[in-house]
Write a structure and sequence with these properties.
The chain is of the alpha/beta class. The protein has a single domain, classed as Rossmann fold (3-Layer(aba) Sandwich), CATH 3.40.50.880. It is about 30% helix and about 25% strand. The chain is built from five helices and eleven strands; from the N terminus they run βαββαβαββαβββββα. The chain has a nine-stranded mixed beta sheet, with helices on both faces. A two-stranded antiparallel ribbon has the order 5-8. The radius of gyration is 17 Å and the shape is globular. The chain starts with 7 loop residues before the first strand and ends with a helix.
């Protein structure tokens, strides 16, 4: 387990009520010495007081965010979309590490000007589209990517609890993982910020050492960025 110095506060953006995935994310952060702060829709949390941000899964991103009308029946939360949008803008300005999970990965892509496929179910050819809580979906990783370094290999098993997927890629992002139907399973930043979006739910897989490493490496990045910020503050004060 990583040491707790310097103290880290990681925001977890989610719905109005915390559920099991959020409790698991809190556990994943605490395992590596970070303190979680849950952020509800409409919250005006001061992002400069955070050391990193997790955008959790949940309701669909409203299609008007990427210039489309709704094509499927789905739950939307416009206030949450607005809150996450502001949080992403602030973390980008402050260069804070960001981890997007499922909806969070999709929102990162839309925030960067990309779009989503609103329903991948009828488009699958090589895999059946059914929910998988266990890591039974094969995901292929891009060699040399941040995610590839975290997961220590070219393929992993992942779960699948989604019906939307990234379609047009947003600016400054690159695809770093695909499933067997070539739907995007992960994106990361090409612009220097530690920013990773994964389509699966690693919080349900904390028992698995490789998926646990996603939280470990995220917390490590937040710690390193905080040390840099503290160093810059001390240098400017001299």
């Amino acid at each position: 387990m990583a040491g707790s110095e310097p103290g880290l506060t990681i925001g977890i953006s989610g719905p109005s009520r915390q559920r099991l995935p959020h409790r698991l994310m809190r556990l994943g952060l605490r395992l590596f010495g970070a303190r979680p702060l849950f952020i509800r829709p409409g919250s005006r949390v001061d992002v400069s007081m955070l050391d990193g941000l997790i955008l959790s899964g949940g309701t669909h991103v409203h299609p008007d965010r990427f210039g489309q009308a709704p094509e499927v029946r789905a739950r939307y939360d416009r206030l949450r979309d607005e809150t996450d949008w502001r949080l992403l803008a602030e973390t980008e300005r402050l260069h804070l590490p960001v981890l997007g999970i499922c909806r969070g990965a999709q929102l990162i892509n839309v925030f960067r000007g990309g779009s989503l496929c609103q329903n991948v179910t009828p488009l699958r050819v090589n895999t059946r589209h059914r929910p998988l809580l266990l890591p039974l979906q094969t995901v292929r990783l891009v060699h040399g990517s941040l995610l590839g370094q975290i997961m220590l290999g070219p393929t992993i098993g992942a779960n699948r609890i989604h019906s939307q997927a990234i379609k047009r890629l947003g600016r400054g992002l690159r695809v770093v993982a695909l499933d067997n139907d070539y739907f995007v399973q992960a994106v990361e930043s090409e612009e220097g910020q530690w920013l990773l979006g994964v389509q699966w739910h690693p919080e349900y897989l904390l028992y698995h050492p490789l998926h646990r490493r996603i939280f470990e490496c995220f917390v490590h990045a937040a710690r390193q960025q905080k040390l840099r910020r503290l160093g810059q503050s001390e240098g400017s004060a001299l």
